[in-house]
C-alpha cells in the first residue's frame, strides 16, 4: 500500500531523478512537477524521463509571466537587494515555484511535497517556508537531510551507480566544476571550484551575458516607462522597437543587458543559516531595472517617504532572501512598498554599454522636481533669508553641545 | 573703525573676489582662506589676487592628506552613499574646509567667517553647521542670503560690472553653462543647462574621467589591502606598482578609475532644504573603494553586525549630506562604525574596465568564511538534520498565521 | 484700505486679544477662529469678547469628535509616544486646529492666518507646517516672531497696559506661575516656575486627574473592545455601563483615568528646534488606551509585523511631535500603521487604581495565541526535537565567530 | 566506562533531580552546578541533595554581584524592554548562568552540559546559544527534547514515580498551578492556569511585590545618582539612608519597589520560536531604574544621539530576549550603547507609591538643558525670527507636494 502521494519538484537532472525513484522505493506515489521560470530546458524530454521513471503524473507549468508580475515586479518596486549587491534572482523564484507545487498538492490530495535542495543552502528554507505557510499541514520530504538518503548517496558516483541500476538515464557530458541555477531573472554559480573565495571565476562560466570585453563597442539606449513603480514599456531609442507586456519587457531587458555584459557580480554573502558562501551571479535585465527604478523613484517620491521606504526595502530584501516571501511581515511590507509607488511614474532614458548602465535623463508627470524652485538663475517661490533661520535653528543643538559637553576631538 | 575681522573662504573666482571687496566696503577686515583639497587651481595666482584686492592676510592650506584620512576614510568605512547613489564627495569636503577656517578664525581672533555659497544649496548648511558646532559664538556672513547683496548682484553681469569698477580681474574665458565643484574625491556639475532633468549631460563635461567609449580596451587589475576597514596598500597586479600612504593610495585609485571612466553618475537628489536637484558626478577612486570595501567587509564581518552597521551607515550618510559631520550624533555614529571595522582586513582583487569594477577574489586572515563548512562536497562541522528543525521552528508562526488569519491572497 | 483678511486662532485670553487688536492696527481685517477640542472654556464669552474687539467674523468650531476620530485614534493605532514618555496630546491637537483654520481661510478668501504661539516652541511649527501643507500660498503672521511686536510686548505688563488702553478686558485673577495647554486628550504645564528641572511640580497644579494619594481606594475595572486597532466600546465591568461612540468612549476613559490619578508625567523632552524643555502632562484616557492597545495588539499581531510596525510607530511619533502630521511621509506611515491594524480586535480587561493600569486578561476572535501549542502540559502540533536544530543552526554563526575572531571579553 | 562528564544546571527541584539520576543511568558522570542569582533557595539543602543523588562534584556559585554589574547594568543603559513591556529579567539571567556553567565545564574538562529547560521555551535557546558561543565544541544534553526522556516522563506523575524508585526526595507541598522563575531582577509566572490569556492572575501569586491595594499609604522618595548611565548611589530622601555598591543599590530598589507594589505586568509576548505565550512578571527594582534612567538620559543626551541609541536599545532587547547576549552583534550593540552613556550622569528624584513611580525632578553637571535658552521670560541666545526661516524651509517640500501630488485626503 502506498504511503501517500508526493509532489516532487523535479528538474530532470540526475539528483531529482534518483529522488523520484528512491521515493517510489520508499513506498510513495510520485507526481513530478516542473516549473518553467525561464531556464533553458528541454521540458518535453524531462516529461518523458519522469514518465519513464514511474511518475504517476507529470506537471510542467509555465510560470514565466507570473514570475515576472508577482515576484520580479514587487522586487523592482522595493529596489530589492541583499547585502547591497545581490538582486535575489534565486530567492524570488523559490516561492513562485513552491506556490504552484502546493496548489498541485492540494488539488491532487497529496500530503507530501519533496525537493532536491541541499541541507546547507537557502533554497530548502525558501521552498519549505512557502509550503508551510500556504499549506500548514503538508509534510515535507527533503532527502538531502535524511541520513538514510545522504549516507547512501555520498557523492556523484553513488548517484550514477544508482541511476544505472534503476534505468535512470545518466548524463553524458561531464558536470561543470560548479553548480548553477538559472531562471528568467538570473543565473547563479556556486560551489565546486568557486568555493575558494580567492579563485577568479572562469571566463567561460557566464551563459546569460557576454563578456564586456567582447560586447559591442556601441551602446544601446533605452527608454523605460514606469507606472506604479513597475515598467510598462521599454523602447530602444535608436531602433524604435517597444515592448509592453511584463514578460516581453523583462525578456528584452535581459537581451540588451546580456548583449552588453551587464549585471555580473562575484560576491561572498551570508546565508540565512549563518554561513558565508561565495556566489557568482549574472542578472542583466534586473540590473538595468534597478538603476532605472532608483532614478524614477527619487524623481517622483518625497524624500522622507523615500527614506522610510528605503528601510522597508532593506527589510523586504532580507525577508525574501531568508525565504519569508509568504509571511505576514513580508505581505505587510509588500503592501507598504506598493503604496509608496503610487506616484512613481515617468520615463527614464539610459545607455547600456560594456557592463554598465548610464542614466541619461528622466521626465515624469508626477515629478516633485521643480526646475524654477531649484534654479540658480531665478529665485522661484523661495526666500534665501529663510535658509539663515533654518541653519541657525539646526545649529541650536550643536552649539549647546559644544558649550556643555564638547566634541571629543576635532575629527 | 573696522567692524571686525572676517575669515573668508576664498576660491579666487569672480564671486568670492567680489565678496572680498564688498566685505571691505562694509567695513570689515578680510582674511582670505583657500583650502587645497585636491582641486586643480593656481594657488599662487589666487594668493596674489587676494593680496591685490586688499586681503589683510592670505591663508592657503594644503588639506589633502587630512581630507583623505579624516573624511574620506571614515566614509569608506561607512560605505557612505546618499540615496543609494551619491558618494558624498562635496558633502565631506565642506566640514574639512570649514574646520580649518574656524581654526584660523580663532587663531586670528576673528569673530566672523564668510563664504560664497548660494542660498538654495546644501553647502551653505554644511559650512555653517560646522562653524557653529566648532565655534559656537562665531558670526557668519553669507552674502548670497543678504538682500543688500543679492539684490545688487542679480546675475553675472552685475558681478562683472562691479569687478571692473573695483579692479577685480575679470575672467576672460566664458563661463561653462553649468557650475562645478572639484576636489580630490570628485567633481560635481549642476545648474545651468543641467537643470532640465531630461537633458543629457554634454559628453565634454567630464574632467576627471575618460569616457568609457574612449577608455582602454584592456582592464587594469588592482589588489587593495584593507586594515580596520581602510585601505593600507593598493597594488597594480600587472605592473607590480604599489602605493601605501593614504593620499597616494587615493590619488592612484583616482588615476586608474579616471583612466577607465569609472564613477560617473547622473542623478536627481533631495537637498536638505527639501528641493530636488539634478547633479552629475564623477568619483573614480571613491567608486572603486566602495566596491572593494563592501567586498572585504562582507567577507570578514558577522552578518548581524553587518545589518546593524548598514543601518548606521545609511544614517551616517544622511547626516553627512545634511551637514552634520560635526554633531554629537555623527560623532557617535562614526565611533560605532569604526568599532565595527576592527576585523575588516584583507585583500580584494578587482578589475577596472570601461566604467565598471569587477571583483575577482578576496582573502583575509580575519575572514569568517569557512570553506569546509560551506562546501557542497564535504560535510564539515554541520548536521543537515539541524536544518529541518530550524525550518520547522521558523514555520511555527507562519503556519499559525495561515490557520488563524490567513494570507490575504496568494501573491 | 485693508491689507487683507487674517484668520486668527483665538483663545479668548490676553495674548490673542491683544494680537487681534494689533492686527487691526496694522490694517488687517480679522476673523477669529476658536476650536473646541475639549478644553474648559466659556466659548460664548469668548465670542462676545472677539466681537467687541472688532472681529469681522467669529468662528467657534466644535472639533471634539473629529479630534478623537481623526487624530487620537490613529495615535492609538500607532502607540504614539515621543521619547518613550510623552503621549503627544498637544502635538496631535495642532494639525486638527490648523486644518479647520485653513478651511475657514479658504472659504473666507483670507490670504493670511495668524496665531499666538511663541517663537521658541513646537506649536508654531505644528500650526504653520499644517497651514503650508494644506494651503501652500497662505501667508502666516506670527506676532511673537515679529520684532515690532515682541519688542513692544516684552512681558505681561506691556500686554496689560495695551489691553487697558484698547478696551481689552483684563484678567482679574492672577496668572498661574506656569503656562498651560488643555484639550480633550491632555493638559500640559510648562514654563514659569517649572523651568527649573529640579523643582518639583506643585501638588495643586493638576486639573484633569486627582492625586493618587486622594484617589479612591477601590479600583475600577474596565473592558475595552477594539476593532481595527481602535476602541469601539468601553464597559465598566462592575457597574455595567458602556460607551460606544468615539467621543463618549474617550471622555469616559478620561473620567475614570482622572478619578484614579492616571497619566501624570514630569519629563524633560527635546523640542524640534533643538532645546530641551521641561513639561508636566496629564493624559488620563490616553494612558489607559495605550496600555490596552499594546495588549490587544501583541495578542493579535504577528511578532515580525509588530517589530516593523513598532519602528513605524516611533517614526510616526517623531513626525507628529515635529509638526509633520500633514506631510507625505506621515500620511504614508499612517496608511501603513492602519493596514497593520486590520486584525487588531478583541477585548482587554483592565483595572485602574491609584495612578496605575493593570491588565487583567484579554480575548480575541483574531488572536494568534494558541493555547494548545504553547501549553506545558500538552504537546500540540509541535515537536521539541525541532528546537535542537533551530538552536544549532542559530549557533553556526556564533561558533564560527568564536573560532575565527573570538569574543573580545566575557561580558 | 563513563560516557564523559556533564555539567548539569541544577535547581534542587524534582525535574533536575530526576535528570541528574537519569544522566547517571545513561552512563555520564554528573557535576551539578547551581547559580545563586538572587532567588530564594536553600542552597545547602540542594547541595546535600545533589551529593546524595550521586553528583561527582557540586558547584554552588554566588553570581549576584556579577549578575547586577555585567547583565542588569547594561540593560539599564539600554533601557532594555521587549515588546514595549517586558524588562527581560529571565532573559538576562540565562547568559549569566550559562557563562559560569561553561567556565566550570572547561575547568573540569567536561565535554557536556545539560539543563532542565523545556522544549517550547526561550530558556533552552538562551542557555545553549551562550554555551555554543563561549564553548563551540561543547555537546549539549537537553533531556526535555530527547524522545527517550520526554516519552518516559510525560507528566509530573511519571517524575514522582521515578523519584520514589530512585531515592529522590519528593516535594511534600503540592506544586503551584503555574511555574515560576525567580532571580534578583524579577519573578516570572507562566503556564498552568495562566495559560488561558483571559483568566486573571490570582491575587496571592506575587512573591516579590505587595499588592498596591495593601501597600503603604505614604510614598517613599528616592534620589538615584547615575554615572555612565548606571546608578552609583540611591538615597532615601526622607530617611537619609544610602546604598552605593551595585548589589546593594539594586537590592534596595527591589525592597522599596516591592513594598509599594511596583513592576507587576500581565502580558502576552512572542517567544523566539514563534509562539505567543502569557506571562506575569514582577520587576520592582528594574522598573524604578528604567523610569529613572529614561529621565536622566533624556536630560543629558543629545536628541539625535538619543534617537539612534533608542533604535540600538530595541535591537539589544530583541537580541537578549532571543538568547544572543553572547553574539558578535550584541557585543557590538552593547559597546555602542555604553559609548552613548558617557555623559549620562546626574541625580533623579522620584516618588514610589501604590505601584507607580513619579519623577519629581532631576539635575546634572552634564545636562544639555539650558534654562535660559528655553525660558519663556528671557530671550537667551536665541532669535525668534530664525524660527520663521526654519519653518519655511521645512515647508518647502510640503508645499511642493501639495502642488504637485496633493494629499490623498484631509485626514
Give the helices and strands, then pairings.
Four copies of one chain form a homotetramer.
Chain A: E1 4-9, H1 14-25, E2 28-36, H2 43-52, E3 57-62, H3 64-77, H4 89-108, E4 112-114, H5 123-134, E5 139-141, H6 147-152, H7 156-165, E6 179-182, E7 187-190, E8 220-227, E9 230-236, E10 242-243, H8 246-259, E11 264-270, E12 276-282, H9 284-300, H10 303-322, H11 328-340, E13 346-353, E14 356-363, H12 371-374, H13 384-404
Parallel strand pairs in A: 1-2, 1-4, 2-3, 4-5
Antiparallel strand pairs in A: 6-7, 7-12, 8-9, 8-13, 9-10, 11-12, 13-14
Helix pairs in contact in A: 1-7, 3-4, 4-5, 8-9, 10-11
Question: What do you see in this structure?
Answer:
The structure is a homotetramer of 411-residue chains. Chain A has 411 residues and is of the alpha/beta class. Helix content of chain A is 42%, strand content 20%. A five-stranded parallel β-sheet of chain A has the order 3-2-1-4-5, sandwiched between helices. In chain A, strands 10-9-8-13-14 form a five-stranded antiparallel β-sheet, covered by helices on one side. Chain A has a four-stranded antiparallel β-sheet with strand order 6-7-12-11, with no helix packed on it. In chain A, a hairpin with a 2-residue loop joins β13 and β14 (356-363). In chain A, α1 (14-25) packs across α7 (156-165), α3 (64-77) crosses α4 (89-108) and α4 packs across α5. Chains in contact: A-B, A-C, A-D, B-C, B-D, C-D. The interface between C and D is large, with 110 and 110 residues. Chains A, B, C, D: It catalyses: L-citrulline + L-aspartate + ATP = 2-(N(omega)-L-arginino)succinate + AMP + diphosphate + H(+). Chains A, B, C, D: It is an enzyme of class 6 (ligase). Chains A, B, C, D: Keywords: Amino-acid biosynthesis, Arginine biosynthesis, ATP-binding, Cytoplasm, Ligase, Nucleotide-binding, Phosphoprotein, Urea cycle.
Amino acid at each position: 500500500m502506498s504511503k501517500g502521494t508526493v509532489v516532487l519538484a523535479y528538474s530532470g537532472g540526475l539528483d531529482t531523478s534518483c529522488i523520484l525513484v528512491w521515493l517510489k522505493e520508499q513506498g510513495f506515489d510520485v507526481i513530478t512537477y516542473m516549473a518553467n521560470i525561464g531556464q533553458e530546458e528541454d521540458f518535453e524530454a524531462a516529461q518523458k524521463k519522469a514518465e519513464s521513471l514511474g511518475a504517476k503524473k507529470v506537471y510542467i507549468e509555465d510560470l514565466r509571466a507570473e514570475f515576472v508580475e508577482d515576484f520580479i515586479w514587487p522586487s523592482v518596486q522595493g529596489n530589492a537587494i541583499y547585502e547591497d549587491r545581490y538582486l535575489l534572482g534565486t530567492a524570488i523564484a523559490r516561492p513562485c515555484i513552491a506556490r504552484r507545487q502546493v496548489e498541485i498538492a492540494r488539488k491532487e490530495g497529496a500530503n507530501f511535497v519533496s525537493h532536491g535542495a541541499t541541507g546547507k543552502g537557502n533554497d530548502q528554507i525558501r521552498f519549505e517556508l512557502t509550503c508551510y505557510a500556504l499549506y500548514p499541514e503538508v509534510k515535507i520530504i527533503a532527502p538531502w537531510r535524511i541520513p538514510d538518503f545522504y549516507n547512501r548517496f555520498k557523492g556523484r558516483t553513488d548517484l550514477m551507480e544508482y541511476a544505472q541500476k534503476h534505468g535512470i538515464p545518466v548524463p553524458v557530458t561531464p558536470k561543470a566544476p560548479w553548480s548553477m541555477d538559472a531562471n528568467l531573472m538570473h543565473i547563479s554559480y556556486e560551489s565546486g571550484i568557486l568555493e575558494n573565495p580567492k579563485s577568479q571565476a572562469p571566463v567561460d562560466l557566464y551563459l546569460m551575458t557576454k563578456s564586456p570585453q567582447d560586447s559591442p563597442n556601441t551602446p544601446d539606449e533605452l527608454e523605460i516607462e514606469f507606472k506604479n513603480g513597475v515598467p510598462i514599456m521599454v523602447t530602444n531609442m535608436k531602433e524604435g522597437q517597444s515592448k509592453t507586456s511584463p514578460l516581453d519587457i523583462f525578456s528584452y531587458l535581459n537581451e540588451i543587458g546580456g548583449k552588453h555584459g551587464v549585471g555580473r557580480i562575484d560576491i561572498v554573502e551570508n546565508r540565512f543559516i549563518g554561513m558565508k558562501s561565495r556566489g557568482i551571479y549574472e542578472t542583466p535585465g534586473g540590473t538595468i531595472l534597478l538603476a532605472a527604478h532608483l532614478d524614477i523613484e527619487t524623481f517622483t517620491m518625497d524624500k522622507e517617504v523615500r527614506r522610510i521606504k528605503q528601510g522597508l526595502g532593506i527589510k523586504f530584501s532580507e525577508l525574501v532572501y531568508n525565504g519569508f516571501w509568504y509571511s505576514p511581515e513580508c505581505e505587510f511590507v509588500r503592501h507598504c512598498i506598493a503604496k509608496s509607488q503610487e506616484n512613481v511614474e515617468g520615463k527614464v532614458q539610459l545607455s547600456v554599454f560594456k557592463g554598465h548602465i548610464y542614466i541619461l535623463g528622466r521626465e515624469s508627470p508626477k515629478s516633485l522636481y521643480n526646475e524654477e524652485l531649484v534654479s540658480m538663475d531665478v529665485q522661484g517661490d523661495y526666500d534665501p533669508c529663510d535658509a539663515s533661520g533654518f541653519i541657525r535653528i539646526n545649529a541650536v543643538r550643536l552649539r549647546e553641545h559644544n558649550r556643555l559637553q564638547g566634541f571629543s576631538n576635532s575629527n
